[in-house]
């Protein structure tokens, strides 16, 4: 055990002291914080350019119907198409909306002339205004007041309430749960592969440089493999926790440094409240529902499960990756073994659509029990609520799967780590396992 701890310390300290680890530990949170902050800045920056649209309406239906938006200004013109196009596009740099006089009674066609791509928001607004006006005139022609149609419309708010075995009711929201499920599953998949491959590369480097021959003279191959696997696992867990802490710090610094003083923050909160009121009670209800769902989500279980399934899945797959690294000499030879080992993990990600749509189906339950697929599948199911017995059974099976794969990987590693210059196939690996 002492030798495993020594190897663990060596793997951990040599990796955390590398410049690449330090750079990625700092750069990772900056990138994650930027992904949360930059979209708002880019959205404001992209909308900063005001678009002016000249409206040439030969029908007269849409006079004063196009209202100015935040960065879209409308004005009407009345000359011929060619002359107005020349003035608007080439002299003023504006856009030209041309609504021709239809051959029939209803103008449903229009043309938007622009020297640059107008943008989806512009075309969507124009279509909505024209569609609304045409529909209103059709209703009036049929003797129907459009206001009656508008008043008859109803918005249905469907809230999902989960009732557990104890009869306790909690509100849920499918959109929020789907977001948490996808995020958790993808992160587990990403970390298992990223740090599992590091084990494979580390074993291959030691084998190709013949350093392993010196190490094996002092420790057993199994001790070397376990020390390397657990050491890199601790590196991954350290980096993950630092990412969470540093991302929170960077976001806090941004909010304090760029959002202004408390008065500005209060003003921003007031603006957000006003926007929600303008959106209507439905928008406020939806906002409150999402807040209630986030408050009712047991993040303690989420974080504990994430750490457990990350470590369990990593230990299971990294033991197999270590065996592959010990059995081959070159990167090209790893492909024939990497694909069969990786298929279950890739399959669990490919089935994410089925898991999210039917988290309680027999397929989802079985995939969350099989050790090779449970790290991703179970993390996708947890936001929707998983029976406690299924969670404990899945964890127990994952531990059992890790012990089994470690035993198999140890037999492969013990024989293959000292073999050089020989192409290894599945038949020979099977002999190593049996022997």
Q: Could you write a compact summary of the structure shown?
A:
It is built from 17 helices and six strands. Helices cover 70% and strands 6% of the residues.
Description:
The chain has 435 residues and is of the alpha/beta class. Among the domains are: 50-150, 3-Layer(aba) Sandwich (D-Maltodextrin-Binding Protein, domain 2), CATH 3.40.190.10; 174-226 and 286-434, no CATH class. It has 17 helices and 6 strands. It has helices at 2-16, 19-46, 81-91, 120-141, 146-152, 174-208, 211-216, 221-258, 262-279, 281-296, 299-327, 331-350, 352-357, 362-367, 374-381, 388-416, 426-434; strands at 51-57, 72-76, 95-99, 111-113, 160-163, 169-172. Strand 5 and strand 6 form a beta hairpin. Helix 6 crosses helix 8, helix 6 packs antiparallel against helix 12 and helix 8 packs across helix 11. It is elongated and about 95 Å long.
